[in-house]
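Reopening this ticket.

The earlier resolution said the output was attached, but the attachment link was broken on my side. Pasting everything inline this time so it's all in one place.
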Amino acid sequence: MPACIVIRNDPLNRTLLFILKVVVSAGLLVYLLQSVDLADVYRHFVEGDHELFGVSVVIYFVVVILSTVRWMVLLRAVGGQADFRKLTESYMVSAFFANFLPSNVGGDVVRVQEAAKAAGSHTASLAVAAVDRIAGFVALYFIAAPAFLFGGPALRGLSGARFILIGLTALFSVMGVLFLRAGLVTRIVEIIGLKRLPWVYEKFATLQAAIQSFRQSKAALVKAFLLSLVLQFLGVSYFYFVARALRIPLDLGVALLMVPLCVLIQALPISFNGWGVREGVYVLYFRQVGLPKESALAFSIVAAALVVLLSISGLLVWLARRSETTPPADPALS
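Inline output:
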């Protein structure tokens, strides 16, 4: 009988992975900051047009509202019912944890927990979260691809752009075939012998039922995709206005390719929520379009820090919820 190695997802492994991500992020940030004039980085913020930061703040909260609408559309497609106000609060809470948990998908975990009751099960809620995220990535692709095709030779020369877009084209094509041909996935599962694991197969069947709901609710998928296009354009606009607030002459056409590429790259789980990787990518891309490294670091750090700051509104919502659910003290015991 051949030996096998089992890697357990225990607390020690998670702790070591967290430490590794922090080390990667800190190392990259230290390296990048040591290679630039920090006074010039700081000058971008001090001499910036601070009123334009207000536009970015407005965009952030519009994104929260529209993301909640998309979430509700997908929940209803699987038969779920949820209050819009509560979903908005849940989205804000998940945004907070997404920025402060040591995981690129920490916010998704919170949303799955939050919407499990409305969706009917954790598995259905997981399907909704997965489709929600996939719709976002597909929308990023449909924003970045035209910018790449019509942006001219300099823009098409951004490192990795061609490889990433070709890879996404292949990936989304395969996913589309699997989605449209329901029986194909079931046959693959049967071939690999998943039926021999009843608990796993039961979860797969529940997930398939949720996906089947999406197949039968194509209008919901179209609406979710259109919302995703608007959301991703607003996301690029957020970064564009941050650049303008810092008086960085970043062209909108360049941002339409650069920002989606960076979002896709920083989604790789190799750092603490993208810190360090994101800054490194922007330094590379800014230099390729003729902008200095100092501008790239100011742009990336300020844009990300503002998102983190705004996401603290989710912490306030979470604390308010906890105070509402905490039973009042018994006067007789005081």
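Reporter confirms the inline version is readable. Residues 1-9, 329-334 have pLDDT under 50 and may be disordered. The longest helix spans residues 293-325.
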